């Protein structure tokens, strides 16, 4: 695919190509070909980001709905009035699915890039704060990064899900263990100081 020509495609064609790449990514994921799936999802996102450029609806196309500027971008598009609301809704839904699926692919790797997974999940949660899959994957990634407080804070947003509840419990156990170890270390330091004091007192007499 020559992506230099993709910008010249009508928005409807870009949307259809994005749907096609997403489906190919889903098929690759089902076949456990995660590397191929990642490539397909990225291609889908590239087509989505170009939507709106030809109409001049938004600077940089609908790409400004991605990677941190989603809410503001939607407002900009609305003020221009050149993008069909139904089209925008489909774009946001596809964007959400692609980033969610990218996070799922990375979790399947032998050494997952948890920071990247969190980033992808944040892109999803910007538009859909209640997306349970994104909450779960972000919380699980924070747990594996040993950021247990943030893991609990994130997972509590969808605490009724059994899988999420499991990681909340695990995070709390790890925090309890950290607290026990801290108290033990502080107790050891205090006892050591007491011993040193006695040694000094004995040496002085």
Care to describe what's here?
This protein has 205 residues and is an all-alpha fold. It has two domains: 1-109, Methane Monooxygenase Hydroxylase, Chain G, domain 1 (Up-down Bundle); 138-205. 74% of the residues lie in helices and 0% in strands. The protein has nine helices and no strands. The protein has helices spanning 3-6, 11-30, 34-49, 70-80, 85-107, 114-127, 132-144, 148-155, 162-204. Helix 7 (132-144) packs antiparallel against helix 8. It is elongated and about 75 Å long. Residues 56-63 and 68-81 have low confidence and may be disordered.
What is the topology?
Blueprint (H helix, E strand, L loop, with lengths): L2 H4 L4 H20 L3 H16 L20 H11 L4 H23 L6 H14 L4 H13 L3 H8 L6 H43 L1
Helix pairs in contact: 2-3, 2-5, 3-5, 5-6, 6-7, 7-8, 7-9, 8-9
Quick description:
The chain is an all-alpha fold. Helices cover 74% and strands 0% of the residues.
What order do the SSEs take from the amino end to the carboxyl end, as H and E? HHHHHHHHH
Task: Please give the radius of gyration in angstroms.
Answer: 25 Å
What kind of assembly state do the chains in view correspond to?
Answer: single chain
**What is the strand content?**
under 5%
CATH topology value of the largest domain: Methane Monooxygenase Hydroxylase, Chain G, domain 1
- How many strands? 0
Mean pLDDT: 81
Helicity level, as a percent range?
over 70%
Which structural category do the helix and sheet elements fall into?
mainly alpha
**Largest pleated sheet:** none
């Amino acid at each position: 695919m020559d992506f230099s020509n993709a910008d010249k495609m009508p928005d409807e064609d870009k949307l259809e190509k994005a749907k096609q790449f997403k489906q190919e990514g889903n098929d690759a994921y089902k076949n456990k070909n995660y590397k191929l799936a990642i490539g397909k999802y990225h291609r889908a996102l590239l087509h989505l980001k170009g939507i709106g450029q030809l109409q001049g609806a938004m600077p940089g196309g609908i790409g400004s709905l991605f990677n941190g500027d989603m809410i503001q971008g939607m407002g900009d598009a609305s003020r221009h009035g050149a993008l069909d609301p139904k089209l925008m809704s489909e774009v946001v839904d596809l964007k959400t699915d692609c980033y969610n699926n990218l996070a799922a692919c990375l979790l399947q790797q032998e050494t997952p890039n948890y920071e990247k997974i969190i980033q992808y999940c944040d892109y999803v949660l910007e538009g859909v704060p209640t997306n349970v899959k994104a909450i779960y994957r972000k919380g699980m990634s924070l747990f594996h990064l040993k950021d247990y407080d943030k893991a609990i804070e994130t997972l509590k947003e969808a605490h009724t899900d059994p899988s999420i509840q499991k990681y909340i419990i695990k995070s709390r156990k790890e925090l309890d263990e950290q607290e026990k170890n801290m108290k033990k270390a502080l107790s050891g330091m205090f006892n050591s100081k007491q011993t040193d004091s006695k040694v000094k007192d004995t040496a002085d007499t």
